[in-house]
UniProtKB/TrEMBL annotation:
This is Probable ATP-binding protein YheS. Residues 548-582 form a coiled coil. SMART domains: AAA. CDD domains: ABCF_EF-3.
Length: 636
């Protein structure tokens, strides 16, 4: 297990942790949350052994293998699939030694290394690496490209795949969803649910945390507080705790005021001096309870537009794309005030192409795009962060678009985005990605838009800012069209979805759960063997009937296998539920029952590993069955 005892951690003059205590048991999946700069990433560095505690202890099992997502790319010349395979260092060692042994014609060493390679699942490693890359959105062609050919966001995906490839007992992931679209996030959720080791996860995506973690550690005021459940459970429990803390604080303040009043009145009177001195000592001993400061540092809204047109924008028979390449065809879309639309669709389907066209960054290749007379677009995309003037301050950025406004009004407005005091006057070049995103949103909000086009607006934003943005969008009177991997934002701010897929833009009738199921079917179709190219000779009827009969015979064992695996999986999940119920008993964690706890945790880890294997086998059996059924249907 991981145990932090009386831990103090300091970076320069800033104390991040002081007397912190935390115990994490094997197999637990824990979300680590806290304000930016609170010390989450520094705590990860401590667990990786890159720095030591300033006081106290950080204890981990000596034999644990630790995997983490690197923030930099070590090499640019490796092929993507090879770069991912490099994450399994033991595999690479065996392969290197095997090459040397074969070159030296050392038969004994070759035999021994082939056994090691088999034990390390080395023969399936390349297939597993490609499966990871596919889940994170890489095409077969991209897997064979150089790492240096990818943009920064795609390189982060490669680093994530490399971390997942590494066999480990402890997996540390710092903001893994920052550069992922919704498709890849849904895939990553499923992968992490099946991970058998201990997971520590830093994330600002509340739905992702709710889906993956079973505990939350909150880093606040130099302390670590462990909560059971996901992020939503953390919010409820913490709210109750803060309410109790506030009541205790108010009671203490009343007591303190009474003591101070007594001291002021009677300290100078000889007959009351002794009682006054007693009150002073009691006041000194009185524990300081901090008031519950839970207010967000963000408080902003999008300023109301001066004028509005209806419709704001009308696209008919649109053919959208780039020079020489059509991405979307026959697009029909009308945006009116009050519209709340979320764009869904697989990676590369054309969501950003649609938004760029509506924003005016791309011209339609065909069709009719009519803009309302009073249309004012507020467009947010990640590339706009790079377009900010690195030498200019937030105040200067705002003054450039509001030259006649008083400086104090602009400072007050920027304060709602947590740019206060000297921070208003600092060059943007020193800002983090989250601060640049906040400034870009502030400039949009000042411009009084009546149409917001938002392409992944929550990238780099922390939980508090995401909540503030969600509330501001709920109050916005204009139209909103948004692409986001943040499901909470989509669920809270949109009324309808459009699906961008196969070159079309069409209404999507379901919710985000339905979309997740749609994605499973879509991936299965993409993975299925390509249809025979046009122009091939048509098989005769007799051959077709024979092929169909053979396929029907193949269906039976797949059906039996799927049913068998489903039954075994159900029994195992019942066993896991019983184990987790026993592990929820607080008495079990007493010192006298240490042995029993260890056995239960080991059994739980074994069951979870088996559960992941069964789920994968069951899904593969179902996919094979569906493929065969599809082929039979096409034969009919």
């Amino acid at each position: 297990m991981i145990r932090l005892q009386n831990l103090t951690l300091q970076r320069g003059p800033q104390r991040l942790l002081e007397g912190a205590e935390l115990t994490i048991h094997p197999g637990q999946k824990v979300g680590l949350i806290g304000a930016n700069g609170a010390g989450k990433s520094t705590l990860f560095a401590l667990l990786r052994g890159e720095l030591g505690p300033d006081a106290g202890d950080c204890l981990l099992p000596a034999d644990w293998r630790i995997a983490h997502m690197q923030q930099e790319v070590a090499t640019l010349d490796r092929l993507a699939v090879d770069y991912v395979l490099d994450g399994d260092q033991q595999l690479r060692r065996i392969q290197s030694e095997l090459i040397a042994a074969e070159a030296a014609q050392d038969g004994t060493a070759v035999a021994r290394l082939h056994i090691e390679l088999d034990n390390a699942d080395g023969y399936s490693a390349a297939a597993r690496a490609r499966k990871l890359l596919a889940g994170l959105g890489f095409s077969t062609e991209q897997m064979e490209r150089r790492v240096g050919d990818f943009s920064g966001g795609w390189r982060m995906r490669l680093n994530l795949a490399q971390a997942l490839m590494c066999p480990s007992e402890l997996l540390l992931l710092d903001e893994p969803t920052n550069h992922l679209d919704l498709d890849a996030i849904l895939w990553l959720e499923d992968w992490l649910k099946g991970y058998p080791g201990t997971l520590l996860l830093i994330s600002h995506d509340r739905d992702f945390l709710d889906s993956v973690v079973d505990h939350v550690v909150h880093l606040e005021q130099c302390k670590l507080t462990l909560y059971r459940g996901g992020y939503s459970a953390f919010e409820r429990t913490r709210a109750e705790r803060l309410a109790q803390q506030q009541q205790a604080y108010e009671k203490q303040q009343t007591q303190r005021a009474h003591m101070e009043s007594f001291i002021r009145r009677f300290k100078a009177q000889a007959t009351k001096a002794r009682q006054a001195q007693s009150r002073i000592k009691a006041l000194e001993r009185l524990e300081e309870l901090a008031p519950a400061h839970v207010d967000s540092p963000f408080d902003f809204s999008f300023r109301d537009a001066d004028k509005v047109s209806s419709p704001l924008l009308d696209l008919a028979e649109g053919h959208l794309g780039y020079a020489g390449k059509t991405v979307l065809q026959q697009v029909k879309l009308q945006l009116v005030p009050g519209a709340r639309i979320g764009l869904l669709g697989p990676n590369g389907a054309g969501k950003s192409t649609l938004i760029k066209t509506l924003a005016g960054e791309l011209q339609p290749l065909g069709g009719y795009l009519t803009r309302g007379e009073n249309l004012v677009v507020g467009y947010f995309a990640q590339h706009q962060l790079d377009a900010l003037d690195a030498a200019a301050s937030p105040l200067l950025h705002l003054q450039r678009i509001a030259a006649t406004e008083r400086e104090q009004v602009l400072r007050d407005f920027l304060g709602g985005f947590d740019f206060r005091g000297n921070r208003c006057d600092e060059p943007v070049g020193n800002f983090s990605g989250g601060e640049k995103a906040r400034l870009a949103l502030a400039l949009i909000a000042w411009g009084k838009p009546n149409l917001l086009l938002l392409d992944e607006p929550t990238n780099h934003l922390d939980l508090e800012m995401r909540l503030a943005l969600t509330m501001a969008l709920q109050d916005f009177a204009g139209a909103v069209l948004v692409v986001s991997h943040d499901r909470h934002l989509l669920k809270s701010t949109t009324d309808e979805f459009l699906l961008v897929s196969a070159g079309r833009v069409q209404p999507f009738a379901g919710d985000l759960d339905d979309y997740a199921r749609w994605l499973v079917d879509y991936r299965a179709q993409q993975a299925a063997p390509a249809a025979t190219a046009g122009g091939a000779p048509v098989a005769d009827k007799r051959a077709q009937r024979q092929a169909a009969a053979a396929l029907r015979q193949q269906l039976a064992p797949h059906k039996r296998q799927a049913e068998k695996l489903e039954k075994e999986l159900g029994s195992l999940q019942e066993k896991l539920a019983a184990l987790e119920n026993r592990l929820g008993d607080a008495v079990l964690y007493e010192a006298a029952r240490k042995g029993e706890l260890r056995e239960l945790l080991a059994e739980q880890a074994t069951c979870k590993g088996r559960e992941a294997e069964l789920e994968e086998a069951w899904l593969e059996a179902l996919e094979a069955l569906e493929r065969l059924q599809s082929e039979l249907g096409s034969e009919a």
